[in-house]
Amino acid sequence: MSNSISSICILRLSAIGDVCHAVSAVQAIQRAHPQAKITWVIGKVEAMLLADLPGVEFVIFDKKRGRAAFKDLKAHFKGRKFDVLLHMQVAFRANVAALQIPAKVKVGFDKGRSKELHSLFINRRIEPQKEPHVLEGFHNFARAIGVNDNQISWDMPYSDEDEARAKALLGGLEKVFVISPAASKKERNWLPERYAALADYASEQGFNVVITGGPTEMEQSLSRKIIEHANCDIVDLVGKTQLKELLCVLKQAKLVLAPDTGPAHMAVTVGTPVIGLYAHSNPKRTGPYLYQHYVVEVYHQNLLSQKGKSASELPWGTRVKGADLMAQIDVEQVKSMFNKVVKQEQL
């Protein structure tokens, strides 16, 4: 597709980690098509993180409005027509949203990754990829419109005020180790006493330990348990940060420990190393992109146990099930990875 593109619509509603991956692709598109106006249809929470992203018009899709959200979208785009829609989400809600977006070309996923009737809502596909990370899938949408920029980078939007607020919350602490312990699903969380053991270990190595998270009862309960089990001092920022402030806290940290959760990917966008803890999903597909070599995982052994096949023999992205899989990750494994990261990153 030529440089004659003047208007591009991105459709990626959620979640935090995925929109972080998408930012890299969107900014590659901006470098290749500087003349094009970019509109991004995005979820309400995700928009809070990405607000003021340079050169992007955001249109918020509020799923809590139910059917009215689709009517809002149709009304917003009445009289407009994009040169291309990059339909980066296969969920049925996103597919119906795509119907409300007028575009000459609607680019979607390849057949191997199409589901929930995705194929009915597009007229062009990205090229198939062999075992891609989610971020690489998004960059393939950029390639579909002639972007050959393979640079993986982010310019995330935050203000001086956001940074100042983050510094105030950290109280001037140096050499910060952030634990962001909660994923959206409880089964993806590590055990609180094991997080506490890593907090104590990091403290012994001269780090100041900070715990972050949202205001939900699950996140607050988990953080309380971690703090109760720990012997070291922990700065508790759970429920105390807006998303941009959290981004700046993660930026000021030296190292982050997290399961498969949005803040892990936020940390990657601001260049902070992440130790990812994975059991249910393949870290090669959804792990912290620049720091996949720092993942501690039990996914592959459980996949083999449950399916009798390796990841390369199964549909890419196959998940494993079990409420207690994260308990298979032991403290010594994570301490060993902690030591490796500290040495390699010279922390």
Automatic annotation (TrEMBL):
Any single Pfam family the record assigns to this protein: Glyco_transf_9
GO biological process: lipopolysaccharide core region biosynthetic process
Entry keywords, A to Z: Glycosyltransferase, Transferase
An example Gene Ontology molecular-function term: ADP-heptose-lipopolysaccharide heptosyltransferase activity
Coiled coil feature spans: none
Listed GO CC annotations: cytosol
Family to which the UniProt record says this protein belongs: Belongs to the glycosyltransferase 9 family.
Protein name per the record: Glycosyl transferase
